């Protein structure tokens, strides 16, 4: 029996082509019985339709630029949310999440995609995400790991531009990032005498501080102020130097420090020298090139984000030390693919989506299963497998890099864990 498609919700310009009609229905939230089957690029372009041809031509160019061997004989659009244009319905492959652009000039402004400033991050989007989370999620996003409060020994005061005692400064933001090759050359212990200087107002803006301040720290300080917070934790400045015992204690508490932050800034684009771009007046342009495809009188945004997109795909996701940092964070601001996103225990919001979008999200519930007192082997295996595939510069750091997370999860396992290195 042939599928019966609604016609009253389809503008006239999309009714003459069966593919265009189905694409429009999917872009506007209608669920079809079957995925949209296009076939090969040649088949999809054979009718010369001027409306859907730019979409297929753009996707073909994207696949060619990716230089990844990809089967393209059964291209189609899956019934996901948002709808996914995929190179092979049967075998998977490269994908484009499709978003109808929401623009005032559109005939039917129902789209869930945003056309963004190519240079600058929408900071108001982040401010709104933080406000919505704090106001509507309640205790679900407050200390989800149920960690005993740990006060960082040192924090950065972004108003006074100096280092202060953590005992007098709460709440705080934490920065999660990777050093990269150039950053590693800069990284070194701060002399004790200089540390005293950095405690003075504007000490972090002094010439003496510059060798120890990769660009990402100043950018994170600016972002902390922009989202309405005053204090920031960054490892290179806030782990006490010159006191081995104090430093060792702070490193052992790193998991709890990230768990206690009001929000973590995760820089998955770039490293200590190049991360957190797109902050107007603070860092260089992000040079975003959104894929905006004409679709009749409308426009389609070929998005970057799908349900699992924040969990892989960058050098940040390959490093072991960053794993527990974002796993233990209650809320995270992600800089990834030249876009920003918000992820907490209840929601995932992307800058390229309209604020009211209701796309499905993926939030790993394995830690919550264990924290509920269930010694679930499958959940702990899932968590540790994610860590074991990551890279360490020094193999002897394998336990330290995940110690905070293990100490929290061990509560559900009588006797704790046995570790062998």
Apparent shape:
globular
Q: State the oligomer.
A: single chain
| Gyration radius from CA atoms, angstroms | 24 Å
Q: Main sheet: which strands, in order across?
A: 6-5-8-7-9-12-13-14
Catalogue the unreliable spans. none
Q: pLDDT average, as an integer?
A: 87
Structural class per helix/strand content?
A: alpha+beta
Distance between the termini: 62 Å
Percentage beta strand: 5-15%
Number of strands: 14
Largest sheet: 8 strands, mixed
Tally of alpha and pi helices: 14
DSSP helix fraction:
25-40%
SSE string: HEHHEEEHEEEHHHEHHHEEEHEEEHHH
Give a written overview of the molecule:
- This protein has helices at 18-27, 41-45, 53-66, 123-136, 180-186, 192-198, 215-226, 235-238, 244-252, 254-260, 321-327, 366-371, 377-388, 403-409, and strands spanning 36-39, 75-78, 84-86, 95-100, 154-157, 162-165, 173-176, 231-233, 263-267, 291-295, 298-302, 332-336, 339-343, 348-350.
- The strands form 2 sheets. An 8-stranded mixed beta sheet has the order 6-5-8-7-9-12-13-14, sandwiched between helices. Strands 1-2-3-4-11-10 form a 6-stranded antiparallel beta sheet.
- With 421 residues, the protein is of the alpha+beta class.
- The model has no long low-confidence stretch (mean pLDDT 87).
- The chain is built from 14 helices and 14 strands.
- The protein is 29% helix and 14% strand.
């Amino acid at each position: 029996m042939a599928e019966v498609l609604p016609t009253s919700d389809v503008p006239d310009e999309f009714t003459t082509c069966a593919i265009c009609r189905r694409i429009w229905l999917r872009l506007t939230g209608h669920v079809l019985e079957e995925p949209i089957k296009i076939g090969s690029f040649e088949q999809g372009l054979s009718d010369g339709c001027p409306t859907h041809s730019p979409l297929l031509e753009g996707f073909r160019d994207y696949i060619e630029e990716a230089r990844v061997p990809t089967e393209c004989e059964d291209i189609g659009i899956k019934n996901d949310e948002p709808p996914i244009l995929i190179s092979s319905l049967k075998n998977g492959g490269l994908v484009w999440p499709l978003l109808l652009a929401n623009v005032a000039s559109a005939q039917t402004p129902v789209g869930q995609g945003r056309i963004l400033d190519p240079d600058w991050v929408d900071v108001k989007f982040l401010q709104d995400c933080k406000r919505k989370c704090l106001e509507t999620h309640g205790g679900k996003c407050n200390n989800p790991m149920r960690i005993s409060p740990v006060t960082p020994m040192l924090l950065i005061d972004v108003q006074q531009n100096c280092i202060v005692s953590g005992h007098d400064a709460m709440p705080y933001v934490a920065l999660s990032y990777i050093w990269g090759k150039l950053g590693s050359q800069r990284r070194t212990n701060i002399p004790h005498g200089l540390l005293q200087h950095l405690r003075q107002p504007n000490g972090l803006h002094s010439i003496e501080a510059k060798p120890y301040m990769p660009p990402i720290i100043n950018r994170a300080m600016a972002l902390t102020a922009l989202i309405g917070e005053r204090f920031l934790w960054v490892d290179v400045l806030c782990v006490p130097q010159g006191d081995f015992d104090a430093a060792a204690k702070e490193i052992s508490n790193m998991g709890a420090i990230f768990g206690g932050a009001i929000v973590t800034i995760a820089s998955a684009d770039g490293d200590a020298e190049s991360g957190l771009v797109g902050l107007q007046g603070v860092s260089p342009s992000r040079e975003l090139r959104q894929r905006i495809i004409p679709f009749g009188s409308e426009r389609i945004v070929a998005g970057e984000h799908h349900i699992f997109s924040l969990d892989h795909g960058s050098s940040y996701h390959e490093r072991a030390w960053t794993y527990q940092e974002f796993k233990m964070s209650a809320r995270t601001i992600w800089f990834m693919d030249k876009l920003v996103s918000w992820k907490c225990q209840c929601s995932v919001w992307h800058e390229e989506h309209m604020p009211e979008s209701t796309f499905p999200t993926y939030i790993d519930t394995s830690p919550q299963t264990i924290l509920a007192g269930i010694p679930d082997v499958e959940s702990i295996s899932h968590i540790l497998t994610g860590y074991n595939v990551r890279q360490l510069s020094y193999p002897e750091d394998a336990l330290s890099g995940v110690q905070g997370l293990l100490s929290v999860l061990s509560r559900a396992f009588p006797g704790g864990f046995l570790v062998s290195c």
